[in-house]
Specification:
The protein is α+β, with helices and mostly antiparallel strands and about 210 residues long. It has a single domain, classed as Alpha-D-Glucose-1,6-Bisphosphate, Chain A, domain 4. The protein contains five helices and eight strands; from the N terminus they run E-H-H-E-E-E-E-E-E-H-E-H-H. A hairpin with a 1-residue loop joins strand 5 and strand 6. It starts with a strand and ends in a 7-residue tail after the last helix.
Length: about 210
């Protein structure tokens, strides 16, 4: 399985209680977070959200969806939410909130592994693209939350970055595929013009002499 560790920080000019209330309303995430397509609460759990179980469907810029279940494992009002994930993603996440002079700093740590077979097959080549896709979704969340609350997004950061050297395996794969495809395209083009190796061999005969 491909394992990932992300750390995202949002700083917003918004009331802490409003942010906390928004985080607690899981089913409303699709209304303000473009990357979240659906949240279905399967079990309500305690009043503060501990034990709540929900099924989540997410999608970023890349053409795939992730479907997984989350359950609240620890909740400290206005301070912390810890969740466990199972399904397409398996691992844990933690929201931590700090408040100072009207600014709320939200830190989200996300330590997960992918369980989809196709993702694990392409992971050695596509890892930087998958990392970038996660960062895009988190940026959408920060911008969406600011709009939803009518506050100002001061900063949004997400690590680790997808470094230039991390793209080398994918670039090598694409170049290799291009090298294989080029002769095939040349052969197809030649055949469309009325000449291709198979026809030429038949026309010239087994010794390469014109018949």
């Amino acid at each position: 399985m491909g394992a990932y560790r992300f750390l995202t920080t949002w700083r917003l000019e918004a009331p802490a209680d409003k942010i906390w209330e928004t985080l607690q309303d899981a089913e409303a995430y699709p209304r303000w977070w473009p990357g979240v397509e659906q949240v279905e609460v399967l079990h309500e759990g305690a009043a503060n959200g501990a034990g709540r179980r929900a099924r989540v469907t997410m999608r970023g810029r890349l053409p795939y969806r992730l479907r997984f279940e989350i359950v609240g494992r620890e909740v400290r009002e206005l301070e912390r939410v810890v969740i466990e994930a199972t399904g397409s993603l398996q691992g844990s996440g933690r929201w931590e909130l700090r408040h100072d002079a009207g600014v709320t700093t939200m830190t989200y740590s996300w330590e997960v592994a992918t369980t989809k077979a196709w993702m694990n097959v392409i992971e050695p080549f596509a890892r930087p693209a998958l990392i970038s896709n996660h960062h895009v979704v988190m940026r959408w969340g920060a911008e969406g939350l600011a709009r939803h609350l009518g506050g100002r997004l001061l900063t949004e950061t997400s690590v680790p970055p997808a470094r230039a050297r991390d793209w080398a395996p994918l670039a090598g794969l694409l170049l290799g595929m291009a090298g294989i495809a080029a002769p095939l395209r040349h052969r197809q083009s030649a055949c469309r013009r009325g000449w291709c190796p198979q026809r030429a061999a038949s026309w010239l005969g087994p010794q390469g002499a014109k018949r």
